[in-house]
Write a structure and sequence with these properties.
35% strand, Multidrug-efflux Transporter 1 Regulator Bmrr, Chain A, 9-stranded antiparallel β-sheet
Length: 182
């Protein structure tokens, strides 16, 4: 069964890096003050509650992919520079395209907010495997190295996009790291 993703076109592919242009889309998001290995799970549960009916009208919303995880400093506005003492993460679910900000049900959990993501151009590296921090950092370094080599500049925090549930075998999982290009 296919799961809806935010719409994008691939502008080019270089050295295992895709440059994608994303159309605007909506997200439900929550900020989680936890280490990376816990933030994704905590944020997922909060946002799953929203799409499974923890909202005004108790309406269900279809699951989409990916679940996006972005490091952020909770006390500051985002994006901020990443440092060794990141205080938390922004976890996002993309909303199905048939919804608008006016028609999405209002969250009853104050930790959930709805937001429109603007059109943007993203450099993406895709990999399979576990959700370990070391694999994330290795692939992020690879992505940054390729972009630097190509003379492409990026801004903001990296986004860790996960497309599969935790019960899917690790070697079949689709993971991506996104950097927004200037």
């Amino acid at each position: 069964m296919a799961i809806e993703e935010p719409p994008y076109t691939v502008d080019r592919v270089d050295d295992s890096v895709e440059v994608r242009h994303y159309e605007p889309y909506l997200v439900a998001e929550t900020r989680v003050n936890a280490p990376a290995d816990e933030a994704g799970n905590q944020g997922f549960r909060i946002l799953a509650g929203y799409i499974f009916g923890k909202n005004k009208g108790s309406r269900s919303i279809a699951m989409t992919a990916p679940v996006a995880l972005t490091p952020t400093k909770i006390a500051m506005t985002a994006p901020v520079s990443q440092s060794a003492s990141v205080d938390g993460y922004l976890v996002q679910f993309a909303m199905p395209k048939e919804w608008t900000l006016e028609t999405l049900p209002e969250p009853t959990d104050p930790r959930v907010t709805l937001r429109a993501m603007p059109a943007r151009t993203i450099a993406v590296i895709r990999y399979s495997g576990t959700w370990s921090q070391s694999r994330y950092h290795d692939h992020l370094k690879t992505l940054q190295g390729i972009l630097t080599q190509r003379g492409l500049k990026w801004h903001g925090e990296p986004v860790w996009a996960r497309y599969d549930p935790p019960w899917k075998p690790w070697f079949l999982r689709r993971n991506e790291i996104w950097l927004e290009l200037d």
